[in-house]
Amino acid sequence: MSGTLPADKPTMAGTLRFLDVSSTALAGSVPRWLGECARLTELRLDHCGFSGAIPMALGDCGSLKLLRLDGNGGKLTMSPSDKKELSRRLPATDIRGLPWSLFGSM
User: Has residue 103 been placed in a domain?
Assistant: First the structure.
């Protein structure tokens, strides 16, 4: 699979529970509409070619249990304050792949 995720929200987004596009050739930005998927429990966008800002809208996915963003070549970005806010809004979510620079010096 290659290309990008659609920028406009698909009609099925409200019923989406699981999205796994890991290890594909998808690239581009992570669309904001993913944050409108209230029933989404697992979002796997790892090992692709995604780049740009990680949308804070993902924090609106209250049912999310797993969020994987790792393996995108370090091209995803998020400010330290947004990383902290996303973690606060999704306390029960296993989040993997936020930019390392946000964890402070190691």
Answer: no
